[in-house]
């Protein structure tokens, strides 16, 4: 009985040592892995979205993956949230940057540093294809406009057109907005011009782009204004320059958006 007990103790000790060794090995493996932590909205057709249960894909996702590969990262770890949540995570240091059509406007530049531009776009109105009454912001007085919650477009409208009489409705997902436009529940949707036609084509709904862009802008990767953020921004710029020069960005844009948004 004593021999069996000692044998059991030895076995337990050996097992414990094995488990501790295994934990150390895993820790070393994790520490040696270079991971880029990226936030994304995850519901933007052509830019960042899931289809048929697959991983997230789109121009933003492909671009940040190409940058990560250039910079020697082992992998990109994605975290999803709406735009307000994404910037909150960036501020808290939970993610390194955001890959999802982030408009590099003056207000955001006060707080964040941005990489060079990789998307040239604008704010586009989308309406029902039988509605010719809306072609500009001035035509939205007394009408219902859908916007992505926490987006730069929502902030732009509230800042520049507070007295325009626009009934602004915020949504969590673009698919819900275009459905409501098609059904007449709201009159228009203001969205990123680069993805407007693609969203319309994929939805197969009776919609159209209306008028010229309300305003034009450029989109880039944002970084916190500190030493780490500045270093990473510089690395992103080097990688993006290389990806532009070798034609990768143009190729990815044509693949996912059927147009080249990497050039002005």
Task: Summarize the SSE layout with pairings.
Blueprint: H1 2-32, E1 35-40, E2 43-44, E3 48-49, H2 59-70, E4 75-80, H3 83-91, E5 97-98, H4 106-109, E6 112-114, E7 119-128, E8 144-148, H5 152-160, E9 167-171, H6 174-183, E10 188-192, H7 193-203, E11 207-210, E12 216-219, E13 222-224, H8 227-245, H9 248-257
Parallel strand pairs: 1-4, 1-5, 8-9, 8-10
Antiparallel strand pairs: 2-3, 6-13, 7-10, 7-11, 7-12
Helix pairs in contact: 2-8, 2-9
Polypeptide structure, described:
With 264 residues, the chain is an alpha/beta fold. It has two domains: 34-118 and 220-257, Periplasmic binding protein-like II (D-Maltodextrin-Binding Protein, domain 2); 122-217, 3-Layer(aba) Sandwich (D-Maltodextrin-Binding Protein, domain 2), CATH 3.40.190.10. It contains nine helices and 13 strands. It has helices at 2-32, 59-70, 83-91, 106-109, 152-160, 174-183, 193-203, 227-245, 248-257; strands spanning 35-40, 43-44, 48-49, 75-80, 97-98, 112-114, 119-128, 144-148, 167-171, 188-192, 207-210, 216-219, 222-224. Strands 7, 8, 9, 10, 11 and 12 form a six-stranded mixed β-sheet that branches. Strands 4-1-5 form a three-stranded parallel β-sheet. The radius of gyration is 24 Å and the shape is globular. Mean pLDDT is 89; it is low at 1-29.
Mean pLDDT: 89
Shape: globular
Question: How many helix segments?
Answer: 9
* Tally of domains: 2
The CATH fourth-level homologous superfamily of the largest domain? Periplasmic binding protein-like II
User: Element order, helices and strands?
Assistant: HEEEHEHEHEEEHEHEHEEEHH
CATH level-two architecture of the largest domain: 3-Layer(aba) Sandwich
Provide the low-confidence segments as ranges: 1-29
User: What name does the CATH topology of the largest domain carry?
Assistant: D-Maltodextrin-Binding Protein, domain 2
Helix content: 40-55%
The separation of the N and C termini measures: 83 Å
């Amino acid at each position: 009985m004593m021999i069996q007990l000692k044998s059991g103790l030895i076995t337990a000790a050996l097992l414990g040592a094995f488990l501790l060794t295994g934990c150390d090995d895993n820790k070393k493996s994790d520490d040696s892995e270079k991971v880029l932590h990226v936030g994304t909205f995850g519901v933007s057709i052509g830019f960042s979205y899931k289809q048929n249960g697959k991983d997230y894909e789109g121009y933003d996702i492909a671009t940040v993956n190409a940058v990560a590969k250039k910079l020697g990262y082992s992998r990109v770890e994605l975290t999803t949230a709406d735009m307000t949540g994404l910037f909150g995570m960036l501020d808290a240091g939970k993610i390194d940057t955001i890959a999802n059509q982030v408009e590099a406007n003056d207000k955001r530049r006060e707080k964040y540093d941005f990489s060079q531009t990789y998307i040239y776009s604008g704010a586009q109105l989308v309406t029902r294809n039988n509605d010719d009454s809306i072609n500009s912001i001035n035509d939205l007085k007394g009408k219902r406009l859908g916007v992505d919650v926490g987006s730069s477009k929502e902030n732009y409208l509230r800042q520049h057109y507070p007295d325009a009489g626009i009934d602004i409705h915020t949504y969590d997902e673009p698919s819900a907005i275009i459905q409501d436009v098609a059904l007449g529940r709201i009159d228009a949707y203001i969205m990123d011009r680069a993805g407007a036609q693609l969203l319309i084509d994929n939805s197969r709904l009776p919609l159209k782009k209306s008028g010229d862009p309300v305003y034009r802008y450029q989109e880039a990767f944002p970084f916190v204004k500190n030493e780490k953020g500045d270093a990473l921004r510089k690395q992103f710029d080097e990688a993006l320059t290389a990806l532009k020069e070798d034609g990768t960005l143009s190729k990815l844009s044509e693949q996912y958006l059927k147009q080249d948004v990497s050039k002005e």
